[in-house]
From TrEMBL:
Functional note: Required for formate dehydrogenase (FDH) activity. Acts as a sulfur carrier protein that transfers sulfur from IscS to the molybdenum cofactor prior to its insertion into FDH.
SUPFAM superfamilies linked: Cytidine deaminase-like
NCBIfam families the record matches: fdhD_narQ (TIGR00129)
Family that this chain belongs to: Belongs to the FdhD family.
Main location: cytoplasm
Protein name, entry field: Sulfur carrier protein FdhD
Binding locations of Mo-bis(molybdopterin guanine dinucleotide): 270-275
Entry keyword set: Cytoplasm, Molybdenum cofactor biosynthesis
Keyword Cytoplasm: yes
Gene designation per UniProt: fdhD
Top-level taxon: Bacteria
Catalytic-site annotation from UniProt: 122 (cysteine persulfide intermediate)
Length: 280
């Protein structure tokens, strides 16, 4: 049963998430014609109360979760209670996600003055100024020099367990090799919920939206595992969702580490089979 009562009778789309194409594969100096599975990406427009806010390229699945997660992580709404209705309309060029929010949320949205065109690899497109792009990120205006905290042996084992099982929970990534994943893991390293998308930001937003509709409680002993690098916007989105431990398969950026230290978030990078690095 959903934890919230958002009206969402029509959020499914009839779009494939992958297609097969004939390709030439070169191996050992020999060319072979084979069929390959290719990930789909679709333009998705998020429209709040009839006002277009952002267009992003996304995997056309779990769009209901994307609508909720994006609204929360971008702080358009303070909680899901400010989302009144979600509907999806397929268009010739993509998908429209129509989200109805409260008048207070609309006012907040207008303050952001954002009208951006997003892409899968960028979380800043459309920001109108450096101040807007970096809002709330420089705390005290200084770089934190505090050392990384030590994790318990139990937590380190849980991280390794989740990392080794991530691939098995990503069916679209296994099929196409082009998909990011964001997973919520319990204190024992069990993957409880995962979402996939061609964009790493979208995968995280979908997961945040899915968590909000589930019975999962975000606490300090559980953690977020992402298949990508940990850049500042991934840390910021996790922070906005109340997540206090982020594990990334790839490297973090220096800015992301600084934000994590300043907000008491545990940040772990290069989480691979048999090793990981603790940065904050």
């Amino acid at each position: 049963m959903l934890k919230h009562n958002i009206m969402a009778a029509d959020t499914a789309v009839n779009m494939p998430t992958a297609q097969q194409q004939q390709v030439l594969r070169c191996s050992n100096n020999s060319l072979t014609t084979v069929m390959d599975d290719i990930a789909e990406e679709t333009a998705v427009a998020l429209i709040y109360n009839g006002i277009s806010h952002v267009v992003m390229m996304s995997t056309p699945s779990d769009l209901y979760d994307l609508a909720i997660g994006f609204s929360l992580s971008e702080k358009i709404v303070n909680d899901v209670g400010e989302i009144l209705d979600i509907s999806v309309t397929e268009q010739e060029l993509g998908v429209e996600l129509n989200i109805t929010v409260t008048s207070r949320a609309v006012w907040r949205l207008k303050q952001q003055r954002r009208n951006m065109t997003g892409r899968t690899g960028c979380g800043l497109c459309g920001a109108e100024s450096l101040q807007q792009a970096m809002k709330n990120q420089r705390i005290n205006g200084q770089r934190s020099k505090q050392p990384p905290r030590e994790l318990s042996e139990f937590t380190n084992l849980a991280i390794q367990k989740a990392v080794t099982r991530l691939q098995a929970h990503q069916p679209l990534q296994q099929l196409t090799g082009a998909i990011h994943g964001a997973a919520w893991c319990d204190e024992n390293g069990n993957i409880k919920l995962i979402r996939e998308d061609i964009g790493r930001h979208n995968a995280l937003d979908k997961l945040i939206g899915a968590i909000s509709a589930s019975n999962i409680v975000i606490n300090h002993s559980s953690f977020l595992l992402i298949s990508s690098r940990a850049s500042y916007e991934m840390v910021s989105k996790a922070q906005a969702a109340g997540i206090t431990m982020l594990i990334a398969v790839s490297a973090p950026t220096a800015f992301a580490i600084n934000i994590a230290k300043n907000t008491n978030m545990t940040l772990v990078g290069f989480a691979r089979n048999g090793r990981h690095t603790i940065y904050s």
